[in-house]
Amino acid sequence: MRAIRRGRLAALGLTLALLTGACASSADVATTKTGPEPTSASARAAKAGKQLAANTLVPLAGKAPTPELPVTVGSSDGRKVTVTDASRILPLNGGVAEIVFTLGLGERVVGRDITATFKEAKKLPQVTKAHDVSAESVLSLRPTVVLADTDTGPKEAIDQIRDAGIPVVVLDVATKLSDVTTRTTRIAAALGVPAAGEALNARMSDELAAARAAVPEGSRPKVAFLYMRGSAAVYLIGGKGSGADSLLDAAGAVDAGTQAGLDRPFTPITTEALAQAQPDVILMMTKGLDSVGGLDGLLQIPGIAQTPAGMNRRVVDLEDGVLLSFGPRTPLVIDILVDRIHQG
């Protein structure tokens, strides 16, 4: 379940105006433009699909920002942390790593955790084993600042890293889209590049608004998010706080689990729960769908075939490292969801 929680979102709230008269190191920060933006849902989804298939990030345009340090920032474990050097950054969460790279600081990143699956991070040494941090692996990379979240563990490993004199900034786990703005702002502040954080928040907010504008008028399908790992006999349905509920709302859909009264993020799937949820569409992670034998295997799970989604074979899957990452690629996820969940 830590994989679910750590992959949750971060997100894209209100557009933040870029500061004028910013300091010299921030002057080159700009958003990246990749040509005219498509307006139809299908065109936006096609463009988003190509970018996700390439598994790469689009950093902010212009020269990489120069950190202005030292800074002292609040950490979600109740500490005040002073960062004096951002030359060797180690993010211990895939969504956090996406933000660091997109801010233009990827050349300073020295390692990754297992959830950082995008192409730019693949070459970096991995410091986690089955989602647990190896303090020895972290210390061997000599990071000057570590970015973690409240689910990062084990606690003993984080304490060992901190006891070695390395600043560790802990962030709240993102559980809804609006958390992404706060998360980006906090990461940019901790790394001494606040103006880059403002620029990235503005870009993501614009992208999300454009995705939402493509939602067909009057369409409000019910979508159930299913988290499955067939080999481990894990079969869960998402409810309130799963992270998927926020994504589905942004994409103009109703989270079927939440509407059915599931007040926990994840609940074991039962035929009764599915009968009550009655989803029009099922949303899954790609590896989860593969783990149960694809669409045909999914329909063999009791209760699935009897839902409208099962009867109409309406299943949408997205890559595990992207769907609940709540990072700079989340607007692409919304583009794809808007197109695929509203199809007849």
UniProtKB/TrEMBL annotation:
Kindly name one Pfam family recorded for this protein.
Peripla_BP_2
Q: Which InterPro entries match?
A: ABC_Transporter_SBP, ABC_transptr_periplasmic_BD
> What highest taxon heads this organism's lineage?
Bacteria
User: By its UniProt entry, which PROSITE patterns does this protein fall under?
Assistant: FE_B12_PBP, PROKAR_LIPOPROTEIN
Membrane-traversing stretches: none
Gene3D superfamilies cross-referenced by the UniProt entry: Nitrogenase molybdenum iron protein domain (3.40.50.1980)
Query: Does the keyword Signal belong to this entry?
Result: yes
- From which residue to which does the signal peptide run? 1-27
Which part of the chain is the Fe/B12 periplasmic-binding domain?
88-344
Report whether Signal shows up as a keyword of the record: yes
Q: Which UniProt keywords apply?
A: Signal
Report the sequence similarity comment from the record: Belongs to the bacterial solute-binding protein 8 family.
> Cross-referenced PANTHER family, in alphabetical order?
HEMIN-BINDING PERIPLASMIC PROTEIN HMUT, VITAMIN B12-BINDING PROTEIN
This chain belongs to the protein called Hemin ABC transporter substrate-binding protein
**Which species is listed as the source?**
Streptomyces vulcanius
Lineage of origin: Bacteria, Bacillati, Actinomycetota, Actinomycetes, Kitasatosporales
